[in-house]
């Protein structure tokens, strides 16, 4: 298959998933803070970036929204890069858990959060970064996520402020973590880093590029920037695969078969290892806080293109090989 035929096939698959789901209106926009509830519910955008740099998009793929929990894997990768696996593992585990994203719970055996994809684990990561970088923690996060997106990500002040005003559960988690010895700096500073991280504005296109950067083992396929180290990407994709959808993670792994992460702002990032990043945006969420149409779109793309990690037909690899020539360095 030529690369042009591959790009057309990928665009058709995106268009098809978008059209199939255009009329679906189940679910509800996150309303725990007013700034999120104001998002028009019917927006729907999809984007994908191959490792070779082919970008396809459809619908509201350039409409901004807040990244929320989709930031968690990228913050984890940054912490792994800066602090190393040993230090990060002391603060947060890599164990899947069947609890909701905001549960106030530590692993009773280790007194650490189960994994970095739930709030407790992400706040532990924010704590490690705040302890290591002080007031620069948020700017470092913003700079690294911007490099991964190939765009300067801006803070949504309104969402940040409402989150800070109402985020008592997350504050409680931060106090619990300090008591458990995960970090020693003030819990308010830690949640401030976390709230700002969650309030960064992105688009589905940005998420596709960020996912593409993980797919390309840390190198942004559009800009060539080297964003994350190989070891950080490996651990990050592994926890995205096993823990990315909270209490729905096992079902996701079977149905879609891709490392992915959702957020209550309506975004999802999904990664086809060494091949493709996918970004979706649809604000209506299911009862677990996962964007419904985005999840379904990932499932359709996975089926259509054979992207499931354990797909038997290998069609996805053939398509994506055409679009993502593997370099001489074997990456
Ligand atoms: N699942 C999410 O996207 C949650 C993010 C949100 N900022 C929170 O911490 O509650």
TrEMBL record:
The keyword Cytoplasm does not apply. Substrate binds at residues 69, 119, 163, 170, 194, 246, 264. It catalyses: L-glutamine + H2O = L-glutamate + NH4(+). It comes from the Bacteria. Its EC number is 3.5.1.2. Keywords: Acetylation, Hydrolase. One of its GO terms (molecular function) is glutaminase activity. It holds the Pfam family Glutaminase. HAMAP family: Glutaminase. Belongs to the glutaminase family. Homotetramer. PANTHER family: GLUTAMINASE (PTHR12544:SF29). This is Glutaminase. It comes from Falsiroseomonas oleicola.
